[in-house]
Design a protein that fits this description.
The protein has about 150 residues and is α+β, with helices and mostly antiparallel strands. It has one domain (about 15-145). The chain is about 40% helix and about 25% strand. The chain contains four helices and seven strands, in the order αββαβββββαα. Strands 3-4-5-6-7 form a five-stranded antiparallel β-sheet, covered by helices on one side. It is elongated and about 70 Å long. Bound molecules: zinc ion. Zinc ion binds near residues 30, 34 and 63.
Length: about 150
């Protein structure tokens, strides 16, 4: 009879858990040969972006064929992630799903805050357009739209 593993034991054996071997720090799921040095650089980059955004943001490092740094702000209704984009600028990605690493509204900026403002403006613009559409249709057909 097989012994049932606890949740912690299952997490330890996950193929998504990176393993350190010499200079390498990579999971079997990834297999891209990520290094410990890249991981540490991503941790520092995540911390740096987070510090520039201020309270409420969390430094996050994810392995996806390389180590990627971001600062994340999450609520029960949405998520914003900010990454450096390699040419000294930043990308912000806004999602209405707090558990998604993707997003629907994206903007770039010279600073993390500028990127966030750009992405939030796109969300606000879309919301305004939807509200205008709703009010326009509701007022044209008040009996059916309300
Ligand atoms: Zn890897």
């Amino acid at each position: 009879m097989k012994a049932k593993k606890s949740k912690n034991e299952e997490a330890k054996t996950s193929d998504r858990d990176p393993r350190r071997s010499g200079a390498r720090y990579c999971s079997s799921w990834c297999g891209a040969g990520c290094t410990w040095r890249e991981y540490r650089a991503a941790q520092e980059a995540a911390k740096s972006i987070t510090e520039r955004l201020g309270p409420g943001w969390t430094p996050t490092v994810e392995e996806k064929f390389g180590w990627h740094a971001s600062a994340v702000l999450k609520t029960d209704r949405g998520r914003i992630s900010v990454t450096g984009c390699g040419w000294d600028g930043f990308n912000a990605l806004v999602s209405q799903d707090p558990n998604s690493s993707g997003g629907r509204w994206m903007a770039s900026g010279d600073t993390p805050r500028e990127a966030v403002q750009g992405a939030m403006k796109l969300l606000g613009d879309e919301l305004s357009a939807l509200m205008s559409c709703f009010h326009s249709l509701a007022s044209a057909d008040p009996g059916k739209a309300s």
